[in-house]
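Weekend entry, working from home. Most of the wet-lab plans are on hold until the incubator is repaired, so I used the time to fold the two sequences that have been sitting in the queue since the last round of cloning. Logging both here for the record. First:
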Amino acid sequence: MNQQTQQLITLVIATVGLLISLYLLYINIKNRRTQVSAYRLTRALHRSSRIVLKYINTEQLDGRFLVKLVLFNPGSIASVIHSFAVFKPTKNPNLFFRIFKPTVLRRLEDAHWWPTQDENQKDARYLDDEYQNLYVADYRVILVSIPGLVGWERYGFEIRTNNDYQIHETPIDGIKGSHRFSHYYEEWHTEK
């Protein structure tokens, strides 16, 4: 084989490779609309199936107060509650960071929580009694017993399930029978 034949074969192979690349690029551009639509559909489905934790009311008891929360699971996949934590804002111990963030959330170790179907259950329950209520198909009432008196402070409630987690910060000011439906709702989504 001589030099010209080798150059011709190399040129033909390069041209075929270029044509295949251009065809694949064309297919990719044509599929972009389908890929974007699939991404938007998946994103909307994920956003609409996230768990929602709502504060209902607070009831003052002897030496402690009882917070009633409701966990909603709008998705088609049931959730299992793994953990729940209560946080209270405290003064930032770092003097330098106190300028930028005056308060930090500190976890309350003496707060007890339990999921229940009986909303009038005011005594703390144990895992042995209420383990079946960790499974949330549509909604579950969560009662939290916190020592002290009801104040106007904001508390943070963190819940973790097998599908999602959420941190809900709210003031504990709705004494039983006085908390109304909110007039304003806004939902923000950020793209990653």
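Second, folded right after the first finished:
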Amino acid sequence: MGGADGHGAGASTGPYGQAVVYEEKLPRRWTIVTTMVIAGWVAYQAGILLPEDSTVWFVILGFSTLIALVFNAVPISKRIYHRVHVRSGQLTVGRETIPVESLTVDSLREARDQPSDTEWAASLASRSREELAELRRRSRAAEPPRIMGGGWSVPTGMDQIVVETAQGESLLIATHHREALLDALMRARQT
């Protein structure tokens, strides 16, 4: 199971959507690199300062821990709010879980045609001021979709899809692998 390699397991003889399993792996490279660099720097300082200046070394250790948390705030946030799983007929994003069957098939099909963030930015750049003003006016009148899983916005480096529930609620899902997630949701919805 992994990232774009999310896969369906088993036959469709089980209950509705139970056979599809998908888990989106979040990138870890940034966290590993920053942690190793900071740990190397703290170890280097330990070699210079310990045992005579242990108080200074503990201050350096504390500040280094704070710096590591600041540099890794976005990856930590992604792990808490935007980890995506589809299994046992349930879609889990962060701390929120909903049944896959509550998503409409039409909204899943429409999500495939939604432009990616880069395509959307390119289309905005090619519009006139009047068209942008009209888009802004319409977007203020429309209810924005709720971000599934929590968080304030879609994190840097992630794409987004908007789907709708049978109750008419629009949900925004942040994802690293848009096509693989939509494929897993469609398979779970049709199983």
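Plan for Monday: verify the second prediction. Confidence is low (pLDDT under 50) at residues 1-14.
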